[in-house]
Amino acid sequence: MFIADKLRKENISEYLLYMWQVEDIIRAYGCDIVRIRKEYLSRFDLNEDDMDEEETWWRNLVRMMKEEGVVEKGHLQINKATMQLLCELDAQLLNSTKYPFYTSQYYKVLPYIVELRRKSGASAGNEVETCFDALYGVMLLKLQKKEITIETQNAIKEITTYIGLLNDYYMKDKQSPLEF
Predict the structure, then answer these.
(1) What whole-number distance in Å separates Cα of residue 22 and Cα of residue 4?
(2) What's the pLDDT tens digit per position in 124-136?
(3) Radius of gyration of the chain measured on its C-alpha atoms
């Protein structure tokens, strides 16, 4: 909760990737809050009040995952809503003539998106979500200490730049609405 709150305010892209990881952690512990507290949350140096607050946050996420039917796969509605906001902003930026650097970066990353979809068998969906899927997948590979090909590294570099720009515009838009 503490990490999520901080990321949501500072970097919406990292927040979303973090929340996807939280969903997977909950799944790994079988949606069992007792196990999550005992085996996962106990690793963090939290005082009792903070631990209780953190556990409540995780308990609520477990409940939501069960209610929304995403115990085995998928994403919580709160995460889908965040992704939707990013997708809508992406569309506005691409449809505007005021953000040529963003559009240029989109066209740099588009061949990678097409290739990712081809490899995954996905024929549709939003480009932003495809980028997040790639970033999350590479993050998982790194956590598993698996090799990442040079081609994938190059693609991730461009995707990171693109999503970083989107994140920056999102944060600017929150402070003062962008003009399109």
Answers:
(1) 9
(2) 678 999 999 999 9
(3) 18
CA 179 → CA 98, 110, 164, distances in Å? Answer: 8, 24, 19
Q: Which two tokens stand for residue 57?
A: 């946050």
Q: Collapsing DSSP states into helix, strand and coil, what is residue 116?
A: helix
Q: Cα–Cα–Cα angle for 76, 78, 84, nearest 5°?
A: 105
Question: By the 8 A CB rule, do 163 and 14 touch?
Answer: no
Would you state the structure tokens that stand for residue 141, as one six-digit string? 């590979």
Q: For residue 49, which amino acid is it?
A: D
How confident is the model over 103-119, as a mean pLDDT? 93
How is residue 17 written in tokens?
């990737």
The DSSP output letter for 37 is I
pTM for this prediction: 0.93
Q: Residue 112's closest CA among 166, 164, 153?
A: 153
H helices present in the chain, as ranges: 2-10, 12-28, 33-35, 48-68, 77-95, 100-120, 127-143, 150-175
Residue 108: which residues within 8 A CB-CB, separation 6 or more?
Answer: 158, 161, 162
